[in-house]
Amino acid sequence: MSYFADKQPLVTDIFSRYPASPQGRRSALMPLLREVQDAEGFVSEARMAEIAGLCGTTATEVRSVMSFYSTYHTLPTGRYHLQVCSTLMCALAGSDELWDHLVSVLDVQPGEVSPDGRFSVQKVECLGSCGTAPVVQLGDEGYYEQVTRAKCDRLLAAMRTDAPPPPDNPVPVTVREDGRQMLANGERVGASIADLAPVGSAMSGGEA
Amino acid sequence: MKVVVDGTELDLPAGTSGIDAVFAAGRDVPYFCAHPYLSPVGACRMCLVESGSPRKEKDGTFTLDEATGQPKIFWFPKPMAACTMQATDGMHIRTAKTSDVVAKAQAGMMEFTLLNHPLDCPTCDKGGACELQDRAFEYGYGASRFGFDRRHADKHYPLSDFVILDQERCIHCKRCVRYFEEVPGQEVLDFIERGGHTFIDTGEGGLPTGFQGNITDICPVGALLDNVARFRGRNWEYDHTPTTCTLCPVGCSVTLDARNGRLERVVAGENREVNEAWICDAGRFGHVFASEERLTVPLIRVDGQLRETDWDGAIAAMQRGLGGMSLADLALYLSADSTLEEGAALEALAGLTGTPSVDHWPRYGMNVETTATLTDVATADAVIVLGADLGEEAPVLELRVLEMLRGGILPPEFPHGTAIADLRLVERPTRHPERLAVIGGESRLSAHAGLRVSANGHNALARLMRPDTDELRAAAGLLAEAKKPVLILGADVLNSVTQDFTAALADLVTRTGAKVLPISAAPNSKGLAHLNLVPRAGGLGYDRLEEARAAFISRLDPAAHSLPGRARGFTIVHDTHLTRTARLADVVLPAVTNYEKRGTTVNLEGRLLPLRQAALSAGEGADLIRTLTALAEVLGVRAPVRGLKSAQALLQTRLGVDVTGLPNGGVIRPLGQRFEAPAGQVYAPRLWKERMHPDPERRGSGVPDREDRIATWELPMHDPALQPGGDD
């Protein structure tokens, strides 16, 4: 039943990234939530309570943090979680019509998963791709841009055969397991957590 | 520190917040999120003011205004929230009174605050006493430019059995969230979602009982409402009576709101030295007994049955019952939550009849000297709780101990009252659990203690003096190293106080300089101990009630505690309800609750606190003074105390204190000699007594119980029973 019970190394690893203080323990909240969501597609109430126990906080606190981000889900999502931008630019370019088309074709409403377990839909706020409106984000993978009705039908057909085309624009920056960021073109940027050392020791190392 | 508010120059202590500077100048700013005992966060943005400070050149001189030759004031480019801004030397502040910018900014903020507020004031319990209503009237435009639909959300969302949340009315000031985190230290309430969708909820399936009701007091709008008082009356219909709560020995300041002779609501009053602004749930919600199933007429036993009668009938029945009995045979017992005046009246009558059997209950066999005040507890650097369950004995003392763990920061006092925003208070304060040691049974406070030692009460002190475990050694070390330690003694210890204990305690106090705060057994047992209300030589204590030839029992219910409920002979019971003991009595006289008395009570610190009479209908109920006058008539003596005035005059001579005209906050006065006698039985404190449990459903609140609520109102969360595809 417990998700983290048999993943002690992972939990230890996540906690090792933060100071060993009560505040530091609370900081592990976000990666733990992400871990559960990546594995299960959503974070159930039981998992929230479990994470609260790990972080030394309360389920209320976990839910508060989680509900702040629309990218965490309290309800199960389908294999293809379609997030339709509904902010101004996309709305001007027809995202409302796109949304209506999506929900009627797929016969799912927000919070539901289609009977075959493939599709779930969600309206989201600006995805920052106003130049290519309307935009649909597929899971965490990337954007389908300028989604017209024809393109939408094409995409859905491909997903029904479990062969979705690669996104027009992958997520610009992803964070790798080692904490290093990777641009969409594969370039690694920033530092890895492996390079981090406590401030004091880095200083003394420099002098030596 | 000189601060100029709207042209008025003030001299304020350093560290004063901008909002207090404004109020100190006699000006006003609206605010919703600031609260004297919570951290200022600047969430509501209503307390906007213009402010500016002089600037110093590199050589340390002020930059001067060329036109006037005075130091030039550099104004902040935008209005600032006064509650999170510290006033600095030479600062100038302009309020809405002198600044159009501020007036416009505040009116604009009010427009935003009211953006999603339902304006259902006519049906809102807060109407008439609502901060938002008042401030919207004073500072708003009176109209809104936002023509679109307001947000709709759950208007009857029960956070617990006692607190109902109206999500539409909430203005997101965060007071309740900060209260739970900062004061009782329970993070059970938080903002869920964000932006315009934000609402308050808990993920714990309800609020913890203890101190949850305080959020209904601090809510500046009608979002969090006391479910026991919900829809019971409008604010202007209530008779407000500021008085002292006498359900535990803390003596919190409360205001009683009564309507049509019923006590409908209790709200916390402010007493900086006792309860600050908080009261416990029992004090707030447990008042229902005062208006339910009250005994309103005397009852006499006729043919084995209790029959209603009037006082004349009762007096005649008592005369018949006590006829031919010696005056000294009538034992007199009273409840230890009676007022000092009532105690004095009973003491005087006992002196007249010469009965040696006088007692009050609950009390402990020996009294321990009190040397600490509640402020001492809050500002201590180490607290050791010995054998006490504060949640049952003195709940608000628990809050003061938790305040000590947060560093004991007491907001300063200004002529306009307690500082509205004390900038030393911060969100998520650092706590020092290592300063608290709890020795004894498990209690709610144990969770906050750095040191927990399970021990039984009677030898806890002896073990602390000669520590035999590492934990006890740590606790003893804490006590030895602290500069201002306080030792709190609870029932487990006080039930078995001996001469040895007193000597050991005196030794400990001399060695460590610790102040001692024993928790009195009952709300006024500290005061009544100074009156000779214990069995005299040859007298029968309350524990030997059944041996008495005749007894008068005031507001005590031994039968409910599986003890003999009546004397050997004629038994008179004086009580507010038809208790189990009353059912056994020969004559039952109606009493009044402490909500309906004038008088004086003494809290655990030894603070004399006034009781005032709320407008409750009590039928023919009479307090102990009047009842004893009737009893004296029965006994054929003239009652020495015949009313409140003569009782207070007697107290003046007996204890040397003037209890007339006590301030709401009370005063600590030495009361002289104490009387002690073995108690004969062990007292187990219980906060919630029979008849105190409010059942909102019984009072017609229309709120379904928890199971029904979960079925109807629980937010959409994943139900593992549902398969993907839902009901398709």
From TrEMBL, chain B:
The keyword Iron-sulfur applies. Residues 690-728 are annotated as: Disordered. Its EC number is 7.1.1.-. Residues 238-294 form the 4Fe-4S Mo/W bis-MGD-type domain. Its cofactor is [4Fe-4S] cluster; [2Fe-2S] cluster. Residues 690-711 have a biased composition (Basic and acidic residues). Binds 1 [2Fe-2S] cluster per subunit. The keyword NAD applies. Keywords: 2Fe-2S, 4Fe-4S, Iron, Iron-sulfur, Membrane, Metal-binding, NAD, Quinone, Translocase. One of its GO terms (cellular component) is membrane. One of its GO terms (molecular function) is 4 iron, 4 sulfur cluster binding. PANTHER family: NADH-UBIQUINONE OXIDOREDUCTASE 75 KDA SUBUNIT, MITOCHONDRIAL, RESPIRATORY NITRATE REDUCTASE. This is NADH-quinone oxidoreductase. It comes from Deinococcus phoenicis.
